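Mods, move this if it's the wrong board.
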Amino acid sequence: MKITCINSSVKQYGNYLEMGSEHIVYGIELYNGALRYLITDGGKRPFWYPSELFRITDPLVYAEWYVSAGEYQGKLNVIWGYKELLGPAHYQNLLEREPEDMRIFEKRKQEIDEYEALGSRRLECLQNLAPFTREH
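Not the wrong board. Structure tokens:
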């Protein structure tokens, strides 16, 4: 999944996102009615950004994403993303930049980046799998 920044020079977390910059999405969170995307800041550091700063330019999500829904502080919380992102320890440790969790993120980022690099062939690969998934 890819998104493009639609606001001019957004500054958040001390980082600038340029208008028109495209980003690969590594996770999605819906909490208390607010949708946020996990992207990198142009480097390797992951941050959650509000969805209203972006337009979806490629809606096809990574094939190995998971989803988790539950309550956090009495509010509905839904997370889509790589398997470890759904665990509360990894989610929190990623925010705190714990080395082991950053390594996990880097590994998953590389996998997702490789998937995104397939471009239009991603959909073709998924369509070729469709007959097999319907039979089983």
